[in-house]
């Protein structure tokens, strides 16, 4: 059983996660990522790709027991950190529970929040999954 470091709550029609951490993934700067996402969006060669990954596939061992339900690809996620907010589509499954983060962002989304990829992690991140409550069991 995976023990997650973040909690999700229902707020009206949305799912909200507060005070978690975010990392970046994909793009041409990630040697451990082939650029393919579960949604079919390609991150390599797509430097302006805006998107996020959330642990939403319960059948995948690394994201099983997530506080989040299975969500449709493309659902919009409003991410707030460092005094900025970006709204991005869900394009991939992750991060793994073992990573300890609550969300992964594409390089462009990570930078749009005011962070550099050298920084690697943003603390104090909150996000709102617009209309996500309808998928909660």
CATH superfamily: RlpA-like domain
Task: Using the 3D structure, state the CATH architecture.
Answer: Beta Barrel
Structural class: mainly beta
Distance between the termini: 19 Å
Please provide the ordered H/E string of secondary-structure elements: EEEEEEHE
What radius of gyration results from the CA coordinates?
14 Å
CATH class reads: Mainly Beta
CATH fold name, please?
A: Barwin-like endoglucanases
Q: Count the strands? A: 7
Strand content: 35-45%
Arrangement of strands in the largest sheet: 2-6-3-5-4-7
How many strands, which pairing sense, and closed or not: the largest β-sheet? 6 strands, mixed, barrel
What keywords describe this structure?
137 residues; mainly beta; Barwin-like endoglucanases; six-stranded mixed β-barrel; 1 helix; globular
Written overview of the protein:
By secondary structure, the protein is mainly beta. The protein has a single domain (8-135), classed as RlpA-like domain (Barwin-like endoglucanases). It is built from one helix and seven strands, in the order ββββββαβ. Strands 2-6-3-5-4-7 form a six-stranded mixed barrel. The protein is globular. The two termini are 19 Å apart.
